[in-house]
Amino acid sequence: MPEGAQTNGQRLKRLRMRRRWDQRKLSEVSGYSLSAVRKFEQGRRSLDRADVILAFSKALDCHPTEITGQPYTPPDSDLDGQAAIASIGAVRRALLRHGRPARPTDQEVAEVDLITLRERVAKANGHRQRASLTKLAEVLPALLRDLQVAVEVSTGERQRKTYDLLASTYECAMQYLYKLGRSSDATLATERVLWSAEKTDDPLRVLAARWYDAGEFLAIGEHDEAGRLIDEALTSLGAMGTDSPEKVSLTGAFHLKASLNHARATDNKAAEQHLQKAQEQANLLGKDRNDFQLQFGPTNAAIWSVSLPVEMGKGQEAVRRAELITRSLPKQYASERRSHHYIDVGRAYYYNGQHEQALEAFVKAEKLAPQATRMNASVRETTHTMLNGNRRTALFEFGMRLGVV
User: Fold this and answer.
1) Within 13 Å of residue 371, how many CA atoms lie on the same side as its CB?
2) Which pLDDT score, from 0 to 100, does residue 79 have?
3) CATH number of the domain enclosing 63
4) Residue 289 bridge partners (DSSP)
5) Which of 21, 207, 240, 391 is 20 to 30 A from residue 168's alpha carbon, by CA?
6) Is the pLDDT of residue 326 over 90?
7) Residue-level pLDDT at 4
8) Chain-wide mean pLDDT for the chain?
9) Which CATH number belongs to the domain containing residue 358 in this structure?
C-alpha cells in the first residue's frame, strides 16, 4: 500500500511493532486505553488530534511526522500538486546558502533595486495569503537569491530594510514548506527568519519572528519551551510604553499562540484564558490587521475560537462556535486562513458525528486552497476514517483527490 494511502493508525502500529511492543505496552506508556489503541490502529477512530499524536510520538520516541506520514507526494494526475512541489529543491538550496557569500555577478549587483524587491515580496506574500502554493513556488527561488545578493551589497539603513524583506520572504518559504509537509526544511526556514529579523534592529520584528519559533517547539510537543518563548515575548511587549496598533496586534497573536500551546498540553482552562485575552486585544484594535504578515484582529480571534475546542476534541462546542461566526466570515479575508477555518469546522463536525457536514466543510476548504487542504494531515486522516464506514460517491471522490484511496 502506498505510504500516502495508509492511515495514521497503520503507521502507529508499524512504529509500535518496530519497538517489539504489544498494544498493551503502548497503552501503558502513552496513557491511552487499550481499547483506544486498538481503534486507532484499526482505523475505526481518527488519529488526527495533535495532542494525541504527540503523546504517541513521545511514547515511541519518534517524530510526529512518522505517524502522520508527511510529506505526501501528489499523484501524477494532480498537475497543480506536482507543480507546487517542483521548487522544493531550489528553495532548500537557497535556505542552505543563507549567510554564505552570494558571489553576485556584476549584472546582479547593478539590478538591485529596493522598490522592485519590495513589490516582489508583496506579490509573494499575496500568493501566500491566497494559499497559491504553485504560484509561490514559481517566484520564491529567484526572489530569495536576489534578496541574498541585496543584503550583501547594501549597507546601513538600506541593508536593514532589505533584511526585513528577506525575513518576510523566508516566512513565505517556511509556510510553503510547512503546507507541503516538509517539516525539517520549514524549521530551517524559521531559523533564517529569526536571523534576518535580528539584523533589522526592530524589536517588534524580532518578536514577530519568535512567534514562529515558539510554533516550532509547539509542533513537537515541547510545550514548556514554547511557553517560555511566548511568556518572554509577552513580557517584552508589556514593557513597551506605547500601545501602538502593531504592538497590540502582536500581543494578541502571542495570546493566540499561548492558547494553542495550552490546548495541546491539555490545560483547557489556561487555553481559554489566553483566548479571552486575545479577544480583548482584537476588540482594542477594532479591525483586522496584517502586521509582519501575522494576521490578527476580530476575524482571526473568532477563527481561533473554533480551532481551540477542535484541538481539545470538543466537537459540540466547536460546532456551536462555528455556526455563530462562519456566515459572517469576510469573503475578502485571506484564503489561507478561511480554508484552515473550514478544515477546523470539518473536524468539529466529524467529532460531533456529522459526517456529511464534515465533508462539505472540507470541500469548501479545498476550493479555497486546493493543495494546502489536500496536503493537510488532519483532513487526510479524518477522511480516511470516514471512508472506513461509508464509501459513498462524494466522499470517495474527495478521498481520490487527496490520494488516500
Assistant:
1) 30
2) 87
3) 1.10.260.40
4) 296
5) 240
6) no
7) 58
8) 94
9) 1.25.40
| Backbone phi, psi, residue 7, to 5° | -85, 165
Tally of domains within the chain:
2
Determine the pLDDT at residue 403.
Answer: 85
Q: Classify the C-alpha dihedral 8-309-184-74 as positive or negative.
A: positive
CA 69 – CA 387 distance, rounded (Å): 18
What is the model's pLDDT at position 405? 77
What cell numbers appear for 379 in the block?
483532513
Let me know: does 298 contact 288? Beta carbons within 8 Å: yes
For residue 376, give its domain range.
335-405
In-domain check, residue 394: yes
